[in-house]
Predict the 3D structure of the following.
Amino acid sequence: ETIRHHGNKSDTVCLIDSNVSENGIKVLSSAFTHVVRVSLHEHECNMPRWERFKELYAWLPACFTKLACLRLHPYNKVLFFDADMICLGVVDHAFALNAPAGVMMTRKNAGLPHGSPVPERDLRMSLKGSYGMSGACWLLEPSEEDHKAMLASVDGYGSDKYGDRVLCAGPDEQLVSLHYMNKRAPDAPFTPWTNIGRVFNCVSWQKGDVECGKLRLLDMPRSGPGAQVPQPMPASPSRYSIGEDGTATLLPRTEGETGMDAEEESRERAVRVLHYVTEKPWNADPAAPSREKKQLWPDYKIWYESLERIKAVLGDDASLATPAVVDGAAGVPILPTSWAEDQFVTQADADKAFGKTPNKKTFSNRPRDSFRGRSNNRGRGSGRTPYGGGGTMRGGFRGGDRGSSRGWAAGRERNGEGNQFMPRSPVAKKKFS
C-alpha cells in the first residue's frame, strides 16, 4: 500500500503460502496488484551465532521460500522486499540498476555507494561479520535455472543442517550472496552484484544517522583493479524521470555541474524503505489500555497510518468479493491467486500463460570454491517465514497462524519482443499491464 501511496508505478506482487485465509487474500488483494500462492520450501538451518535469538527465528527453516520471486517470469526484473518493511518514498528508479543487486550490509558504516559494483573481498568480509547481500532487499532477474540451482544446493545437504558456522549472515543471505558471486569471471575484482544504497533497507534507529551523513560510505579503491569503478548511479529521484509506463531514465547533469548541491545531497540520503527487524508494529495495539499496549514509536505510526488507509478502502469486510480464480492456461494477463507450485512450474508454462514467447536463454553456473572449500553446489541457505497479517521473510513475525505473506515484490514486464530475458539490462522496460 505504501508503494502506491508514494507514487511508484511498478506492479506489486505479494507471495503467500497455503496458511493464508481467503479473507486474508481479499485484504492483500486490495493493496497489491497480484497475490501469488507458493509452496513452502523448508530445510533445517545451522545458525549457532543466532542461538540467543532462537525464539525470534523459528521461521528460519522456511526462509528459502522467498526464492519463489525468481519464478515471476512475466517480469524482467523483480525488486524483492521482506514483508516487515514499509515504503517511505520512490523506489521505482532501483530498476535502472544492473541485476543482481542488493544492499551489502556492514556494521559500522553505510556500505558502498548506490550503483557501485561489489568487490569480492568486501562481500566475503560482510558475510563473515555482517549479513552479506541483505536478504531483505534484492533486485533479481527471474530465472527458473537459478531458482532450481539454489534449492538444489540447499537440498544437497540432506539431513545435515544448512549454513556455515563461520559466517554471521543468515542462510538465505549466504545462499543468494554466494550463488551470484560465484558467477563472476575468473580473477575478476568485482562480483556480478551491484550495490543498492542503504536508504532502501534501513532500520529505524539508524535512519537519522543515514540521512544526516553520519554513517559514511565505504571508500572505493582508487588504484589497482578497482580503479575502473563506474560512476555510481544516484539514488535521488531528482536524477530520474519516471515515465507513465514506469520506465526510469537517468537525467544528464547540466553543463558545468560537477556535483550535488546540499538540497540534492539531502534528497539522495532520504531513506526510502524502513525495516522492522525487531519488534513489529502489528504486535502493538494502539486501542489497548495504556498499561497493556506497547509504545508506539514514530516508525510504528507510519505503519498504522497505512493500515487506516487500507481500512478506508475496504470498508465492511463482509462486502469483500472473493478474488477471481484464474486458470493458468487461460492466457489472462494477470498473476492468478490460485496457482499451486505444481502449476507454476516452468518458465515456458508461465510465459505461455501470459501470452509470451518462451525464454530461450540458458545459464551456465560454474560453481567455485567457497569459504570452506565447498562448491556452491552444496548451497548456502536462504530465507523463510511464518507470520500472520503483514508477515516478514526475515523478521520472524508470528502473528497467530504459521504463515502469511512471505514478502512483497515490485516487478517490470518482459518486453515481449523475443528477447524477453535481458541480462544486466540498464533500464527496466515497460510496465506490466
